[in-house]
Structure prediction request, 126 residues.
Amino acid sequence: MFSYVFHLVLSVFLLGIGLIGKMSTGTASFYTPLLPGDTDRQAGYAVWLGLAGLISVLLAMTGRFRPLLVVWAFAAMVLYFRGFFWGTYTYSGRDEFESALWYFGGTVLAFIGSLCWPKKAKTTGF
Prediction:
């Protein structure tokens, strides 16, 4: 259940910031170290990743295709790790680094949760 909620919130967030980044005009550019690519394409990546996440969560919640959530959860975990620890992201202090560890820990737990599929309920034939 945690995995569904975590990735649903993450997907809606990505979709929202991506749409805001796409619609905003002016001199400000959209950039986040968690997403690949340059500033010109990151808003589009956020929209498509948000849609992919929503689709994977909805398919998993309905029981139609749960393995897609595992793939999505792994991709999100890799993006978090790459953005916070492997990339060029710099921390302004210990508190910010600890927050990044908590965020990454959440993605790890959500990935582990995506591996545990609930058993289907047995029907009684009524």
Summary: Helices lie at 2-23, 42-62, 67-86, 94-115. The mean pLDDT is 86. The chain is about 65% helix and 0% strand.
